[in-house]
Amino acid sequence: MPVTPCRLFDTRSGSDNVGSRSTPLGAGVGGAHVQQVTGVNGDCEVPVGAVGVSLNVTVTNGTAQSNLRLYPDGVEVPLASNLNWVAGQAPTPNKVDVKLSADGRVVVQNFKGTVDVIADVVGYSTRGTLGDIETRLAALEAGNGGDNSDSGDDGVLAGRVDALELVDQQLAEDQRVVSERVDSLVLPFSVEDRRSSTTALTSTPQTVMGIEVAIPAEGRLTMVYGVNAENTTPGGGVRCHIIGARSSSSTIFSFSPSSSQWFASDDARQGSVAGTSDREVSPGEAVYDVRCIEVGGAGTVRGGSITAVFTPLSSQ
């Protein structure tokens, strides 16, 4: 039964928040959200007799490549997912029809990282509406020449149940195939970090900004950075470069050659240090830091930005 869309919940904090939760979903069962659907919840009122609900579900602010699964509270986690995304992807919606538990609840579960979820009710079903569907199925059977007059009511009902089970099985299989195909897609994406803080430099490399990137597949990562630097000593300079470190190990590698800015005695002794470089990367998470040193004087970095652009091998 379609209804005027209403917001059931929105996990985003601040003025966007709707419902009892104002934090993103974590990963796995421990980070899942159990949502009461029937009754008055959020901006919606769904009849207590509802057995299923139609939702428009949107994910946003995802921190990792992941998927979302909605299912009745109290049952096993289904294999098929309802939404799929990569880290930093724009808000992504999908229509989801889900059965409710006996007490009118659904579970919303995220696979990896954290993500905010928004759900709007666009319809619901009751045992009455399901009865209407059975009536329509019976009419279709009669129109197709089916004659069950000799089989008895039990036989007719059993045949309809078998047909519905076959439809459910086929839908589940189709959803699984689509989910696998979506999961296999890897799209280009970018991640950015901007800083305005001041970092006093020494002759030992100081981290002035950094960014964490989850690499979903083989590809190429391009890093672009720029910092606002100064050196109050005439003839001094500032030198910076990017250092990468795998989150899963202690391996540290230099991502880019050094970029430098030298300041003559007659200028304002302020300027920018910028660099760009890229390399082939493999799946996993890594942290990339911009590190700077002072050369020949007293150096300072006053903010800047770093951007990582990932391109999968399939897109190159």
Shape call: elongated
Low-confidence stretches: 146-151
Query: What are the secondary-structure elements, in order, as H or E?
Result: EEEEEEEEEEHHEEEEEEEEE
Can you count the beta strands?
Answer: 19
Average predicted confidence as pLDDT: 81
Count of DSSP H/I helices: 2
The end-to-end distance, rounded to whole angstroms, is: 47 Å
Structure classification: alpha+beta
Any overview of this molecule?
This protein is α+β, with helices and mostly antiparallel strands. 16% of the residues lie in helices and 49% in strands. The chain is built from two helices and 19 strands. The chain has helices at 127-143, 152-184; strands at residues 2-10, 33-36, 39-41, 44-46, 50-60, 66-72, 83-85, 92-99, 105-110, 116-126, 189-200, 206-215, 219-231, 237-246, 252-254, 259-262, 270-281, 284-295, 299-312. The strands form five sheets. Strands 12, 14, 15, 16 and 18 form a five-stranded antiparallel sheet that branches. Strand 3 (39-41) and strand 4 form a beta hairpin. The longest helix is centred in the middle third of the chain and has 33 residues, at 152-184. The protein is elongated. The chain starts with a strand and ends with a strand. Residues 146-151 have low confidence and may be disordered.
